[in-house]
Amino acid sequence: MDSTRQEKINRLLQKELSEIFRKQTQQMRGVLISVSTVRVTPDLGLAKAYLSIFPSDQGEEILKNIKTNVKQVRFDLGQKVGKQLRIIPELAFYLDDSLDYLENIDKLLNSDNQNKED
Fold it and tell me: Which residues contact 21 (CB under 8 A, 6 or more apart)?
């Protein structure tokens, strides 16, 4: 269970990371990166960010690119939240494929309903 402070930091990091990725993807037409959740450890030393990437077929490639540039992303984050946080947490990025999962379930349910009607 996260403390109130952890929850506030989660929201702050999610907002700022979203803004960083929005600015970085402006040059890349047709690519959208959203930060679905951020979980910070109790010692505030590590933040796990879960990213939804559209189009999803480029997700792995974009995530790999983000992971290679994690130091720059952390530096940009430090510029934004340096006044609120004493220590900028290390960043770990993961692909959030929950939307793809929901879409797949929806397709399966729709195909099942069509099979019952036939």
Answer: 33, 34, 35, 51
